[in-house]
Amino acid sequence: MHPILFTFGNFTIYTYGFFVATAFAVAIFYLLHLITKSKEKIISQDDLYSLVMYIMIFGVVGARLFFVFTDLKEFILYPLSIFKIWQGGLVYYGGFIAVIIFAYVYAKRKKIHLLKLGDFFAPALALGHALGRIGCFFSGCCYGKESSLPWSVVFINEHSLAVRGKPLHPTQLYEAFANLLLFVFLHFYSKKEHKLGVSFAVYITGYAVLRFIIEFFRGDYRGVQYFGFSVSQIISVFLFAAGVFIICRKK
C-alpha cells in the first residue's frame, strides 16, 4: 500500500518500521501504566524497566530468526539482508516464544510469578500486535490469497512486498482487528477479580484461534507444511491447549 513513509535525501523511513516502533512504544506505555497503578507490586521499577528492555531485544531477535529460517536459502545468498528488519520480516510467534523463554528464566531468577506477570502483559501484547499488523498492511507483507470479496485490496506500489495487481484478502487487517477486539476484552477483563494466570490464558487461547483461522487466508510463503497445516497453525494448536490447561487448572 504505502511501504515508504517518507524520505530525507538518502534517508528512508519505512512505514513498517514506524508502526513496529509505535507498537512497542504504545504496548510498553500501557504495560507500565497497568503495573504501576496495580495495588499488588509484583516487580520493582528498576527490574520492570530492565525486563521491558530485554523483552524488546529478545522479541525482535526471535521474530527475525524465525522469519530467516522460513526462507534460509534466500538469506544464505544475501546474508546482510538479515538485518533489514525495517523493511518487514518479523514472525510474531518467533518473538513470542523467545520472550516466553526469557521471561521464564528472568522470573525464576527474580522470584516473580510468571503467570502473574503474564496477566499484565496479555492486553499489552494484543494492543501492540494490532498496531504492528497495520505496518504489515502498509508494507505488503503477510498478505492474503486472491479474493473476489468486496473488501479485497489491490497492492500496486512497486516497493510493496505483496503480489501486485490482484485483489487479495487483507489478512493483515483481519489480524489487526481481531487483536484489537482481544485487547478490548482483556482490558476490561483485567479490571475484574480473576484467578492468577487466567488473563494470560485467555490471550493465548484467543490469539491461537484467530491465528489458526487467518492462516487459511494467507497467500505469502508459509514455510514447510505438515499434514496441510502451516508451522504457525501447529504452534497455535499447542498454545490453545496450554491456555485451556491453565484455565481448567484455575477452576
TrEMBL record:
<dbReference type="Pfam" id="PF01790">
    <property type="entry name" value="LGT"/>
</dbReference>
<keyword id="KW-0808">Transferase</keyword>
<feature type="transmembrane region" description="Helical">
    <location>
        <begin position="196"/>
        <end position="214"/>
    </location>
</feature>
<feature type="transmembrane region" description="Helical">
    <location>
        <begin position="48"/>
        <end position="70"/>
    </location>
</feature>
<dbReference type="GO" id="GO:0005886">
    <property type="term" value="C:plasma membrane"/>
</dbReference>
<keyword id="KW-0472">Membrane</keyword>
<keyword id="KW-1133">Transmembrane helix</keyword>
<keyword id="KW-0812">Transmembrane</keyword>
<comment type="similarity">
    <text>Belongs to the Lgt family.</text>
</comment>
<feature type="transmembrane region" description="Helical">
    <location>
        <begin position="90"/>
        <end position="107"/>
    </location>
</feature>
<feature type="binding site">
    <location>
        <position position="133"/>
    </location>
    <ligand>
        <name>a 1,2-diacyl-sn-glycero-3-phospho-(1'-sn-glycerol)</name>
    </ligand>
</feature>
<comment type="pathway">
    <text>Protein modification; lipoprotein biosynthesis (diacylglyceryl transfer).</text>
</comment>
<dbReference type="GO" id="GO:0042158">
    <property type="term" value="P:lipoprotein biosynthetic process"/>
</dbReference>
<protein>
    <recommendedName>
        <fullName>Phosphatidylglycerol--prolipoprotein diacylglyceryl transferase</fullName>
        <ecNumber>2.5.1.145</ecNumber>
    </recommendedName>
</protein>
<feature type="transmembrane region" description="Helical">
    <location>
        <begin position="226"/>
        <end position="247"/>
    </location>
</feature>
<dbReference type="GO" id="GO:0008961">
    <property type="term" value="F:phosphatidylglycerol-prolipoprotein diacylglyceryl transferase activity"/>
</dbReference>
<keyword id="KW-1003">Cell membrane</keyword>
<comment type="function">
    <text>Catalyzes the transfer of the diacylglyceryl group from phosphatidylglycerol to the sulfhydryl group of the N-terminal cysteine of a prolipoprotein, the first step in the formation of mature lipoproteins.</text>
</comment>
<feature type="transmembrane region" description="Helical">
    <location>
        <begin position="13"/>
        <end position="36"/>
    </location>
</feature>
<dbReference type="InterPro" id="IPR001640">
    <property type="entry name" value="Lgt"/>
</dbReference>
